[in-house]
Amino acid sequence: MDDQPVITTTWDGPVATVTIDRPAALNALSRQVLEELGAAFDALADAGAGLRGVVLVGAGGRAFVAGADIRELSGLDADGAAAMGRLGHETVARIESLGAPVIACVDGYALGGGLELALACDFIYASAQARFGLPEVSLGVIPGFGGTVRLPRAVGLARAKELIYSGRMVDAAEAERIGLASRVEPDRDALLAAARATLDEIGTRSPSAVALAKQVLVDATGTPTERATELEIDGFSRAFATDDMREGTAAFLAKRTPEFTGR
User: Fold this and answer.
1) pLDDT tens digits, 121-157
2) Active site residue 96
3) In this structure, is residue 18 part of a structural domain?
4) CA gap 236, 183 in Å, rounded
5) What pLDDT, in 10s, does the model give residues 157-171?
6) Which GO terms describe its biological process (predicted)?
7) Does the first or last residue of the chain, that is N or C, have fewer Cβ atoms within 10 Å of its Cβ?
8) Active-site residue, selected from the candidate residues 35, 36, 136, 185
């Protein structure tokens, strides 16, 4: 276990930056990292409408997250692996369920658990130096923190199978082409600036509507059309019970800028 905290959260206005700060280990996902990351996103969830977006990054410039901590994993038996898998899934679920949008800013390697962490975010922005992959089969295991669930949603089932079975890495250009990365920027500074610009734009919209849209998108993905339709209708109707809906429609009719509160 690291002597110091490995997750830091900083705020710039309504946008939080969560940094995985284990650069000597290429930000590998140890139990400590997963536990602290889950706690950080629990705290962000408590911020409510005061939070308009999150940037998730890795420290050091060489990796977003290079994977799970193999030294820790190598000592696990089947029961220990199941417990570690549950912890990983609980952590990424906290990210995926956060009402505010989360952008994974990948600079360097996002491998194994690192890619699984990024896939739980709303979108992935990459620097030109980014590299992505799920190489677990080369270690005799399979993805355990959501890779088999979320990668097919991002790139399609056949391509996800090819990437998982082969363990092949893809560069930033290919990641963008196959829909894994939403955009690619030349370097880390441009990457972070692009993520902030996107979150600032989203921040001008209704926080309650963004949160409802995110919930429906997450819950409906992969479900039968009939069930997905009901989820959308439920979310649509819930939006009409919000102050933001009344403010947004009133502002539109009055031809003024809305002042959303997230209520």
Assistant:
1) 999 999 999 999 999 999 999 999 999 999 999 999 9
2) no
3) yes
4) 29
5) 999 999 999 999 999
6) fatty acid beta-oxidation
7) N
8) 136
